[in-house]
Write a structure and sequence with these properties.
With 490 residues, the chain is of the alpha+beta class. 36% of the residues are buried. The chain has 12 helices and 18 strands. The chain folds into 4 domains: 4-157, Beta-Lactamase (2-Layer Sandwich), CATH 3.30.450.280; 175-266, Beta-Lactamase; 273-340; 342-490, Histidine kinase-like ATPase, C-terminal domain (Heat Shock Protein 90, 2-Layer Sandwich), CATH 3.30.565. Strands 3-2-1-6-5-4 form a 6-stranded antiparallel sheet, sandwiched between helices. A 5-stranded antiparallel sheet has the order 8-7-11-10-9, sandwiched between helices. A 5-stranded mixed sheet has the order 13-15-16-18-17, with helices on one face. Strand 17 (462-467) and strand 18 form a beta hairpin.
Length: 490
């Protein structure tokens, strides 16, 4: 689906500053929809089609039932279909009327609000809601509708949305969380029941009507800053375990401050959850740190035991086991540094390369290099991949150059490339190549058997080996494969 900017650029002739103004409006108009208990649609004149409009924005209220179930974005309407749009655009004033909604088979009340930017009307914002007959609105609805009308006049005058505003987060309060309406002096004219409850959570039990937030003991509220700068301001107030998020939106009339809309949200449970998550993250990092330490201890014990043995198969087997344990420890070391359960595999590569190069003798050194990037992946993929890659590089260094050297410099090169959700890894050397009749599926080599088991069973990938100016081992690994939790299945 096209973004708002893409839709406007493709279907209208609006200039970039006007597009940015409409983006700011759409970024904040959830409050307007909730205050008016109505659906809001944003219409922009269609390029090259006089009298036609394109729906470039749509929002549904969280305080009432929506009028439109279907998605109207990108739909074009003509002047005869919605004559009020053309009148609002040309006159630059609010136009009200009724419209038959085909999907519901009933009329709806429509208010067309010109959206002015830099002195020109660039779009029309419509408030659309079912007709309410035979029911008198309550105080809350009347107050909300009055605040909406004040903001609508700001939209028509080009004063809303504000040119400079703090970006809204997912934790920003909505109308349903709690509303207070302040007068020009900053005193509370109205407070919704949810707003009163939030004040009680902060320890404010006296009546809030007629008092300023400072008089209620909330000296750190954003109201003074919003009144001074004539810009929206937000602040999170904490009292012990209680946390309340407050956002103050100035209400202006011809550039003069007439009051403010204050949105209040009790975020105590969110902050408690955040603290629990932080504690969990710390615990997970500690677990990875301890696992890494234990694996390094095992690695040291294997290394000490190997040194006590004479050169031969037993010592060689212990050396290989020690390197495998060390490659697993590297993954846990990376995980112990960050709260994310993903590993940047490129951080592990230098250590794996050094381990492989250390296997070559000083008389006949082997240079190991790599290109491309493996990127981020889950620990359940990184651990078996690190072991498999370690085995392939170790196998190349130890066996590719024993009796044959294609060039003066012995080289092993590892290449990484992403192909959709798959990672392709190639380990290429310029050694003697594979022996005649070799098959990776039937090899009895312990190292290659480990690689085959890890790739096929643990990683759900594929492995192939061939001779091409040396030996080429190619792995294709799905990054999001639900791999197992242990290495025992190989």
């Amino acid at each position: 689906m096209a973004t708002l900017a893409e839709l406007i650029h493709d279907r209208t002739a609006l200039a970039e500053p006007a597009v940015e103004h409409l983006q700011r409006l759409v970024g904040t108009w959830g409050v307007l929809s909730d205050l008016s208990f109505s659906d809001l649609l944003l219409f922009a004149p269609a390029a090259g089609q006089p009298g036609q409009f394109v729906v470039v924005g749509q929002v549904r209220p969280t305080t009432s039932q929506t009028l439109y179930i279907e998605d109207l974005l990108g739909r074009e309407v003509t002047g005869p279909e919605r004559p009020m749009l053309s009148r609002a655009l040309s006159l630059g004033t609010v136009v009200e009327g009724e419209l038959a909604v085909a999907a519901r088979g009933e009329p709806a009340r429509v208010v067309c609000i010109p959206v002015r930017f830099a002195g020109e009307v660039v779009a029309v914002l419509t408030r659309e809601a079912p007709l309410r007959v035979g029911r008198r609105p309550g105080e809350l609805e009347r107050v909300y509708a009055g605040v909406f009308d004040r903001i609508a006049r700001m939209v028509t005058a080009g004063a809303f949305p504000f040119l400079l505003d703090e970006p809204l987060s997912s934790e920003s309060p909505r109308v349903g969380d709690g509303v207070m309406v302040l007068d020009a002096s900053g005193r509370v004219e109205y407070a919704s029941p949810n707003a009163v409850n939030a004040m009680h959570r902060l320890g404010v039990f006296r009546g809030v009507l007629g008092a300023s937030l400072e008089e209620l003991g909330l000296e750190q509220s954003p109201v003074p800053r919003a009144y001074k700068e004539l810009l929206p301001a937000s602040e999170e107030l904490e009292l012990g375990e209680v946390a309340v998020f407050i956002r103050c939106i100035p209400l202006l009339d011809q550039g003069k401050l007439t009051g403010a809309l204050v949105l209040v949200r009790d975020v105590t449970d969110i902050r408690r959850r955040d603290r629990l998550l932080m504690s969990k993250d710390v615990a997970i990092r500690e677990v990875h740190h301890r696992v890494k330490n234990n694996l390094q201890t095992i690695s040291s014990l294997l290394r000490l035991q190997a040194r006590r043995l004479p050169a031969g198969e037993a010592r060689h087997a212990l050396d290989e086991a020690e390197r495998r344990v060390r490659s697993i420890a590297m993954v846990h070391e990376i995980l112990s540094r960050d709260t994310a359960q993903e590993v940047d595999f490129d951080d592990i590569l230098p250590s794996l390369v050094r381990m492989a190069e250390d296997l070559s003798s000083t008389a006949h050194p082997v240079r190991v290099t790599w290109s491309g990037g493996a990127g981020h992946m889950g620990a359940q993929v990184a651990t078996p991949l690190a072991v498999a890659l370690n085995e392939l590089m170790q196998n190349a260094v130890e066996h590719a150059f024993v009796s044959y050297r294609a060039e003066p410099e012995a080289r092993v090169h590892v290449t990484f490339s992403r192909r959709g959700d798959e990672l392709v890894v190639e380990v290429r050397d310029n050694g003697a190549g594979l022996p005649p009749g070799f098959s990776v599926d039937s090899t009895t080599s312990l190292g290659l058997s480990i690689v085959r088991g890890l790739v096929n069973s643990q990683l759900g990938g594929k492995i192939e080996m061939r001779s091409d100016g040396g030996t080429v081992a190619r792995l294709v690994v799905p990054i999001n494969h639900p791999v197992g939790d242990d290495l025992a299945r190989i």
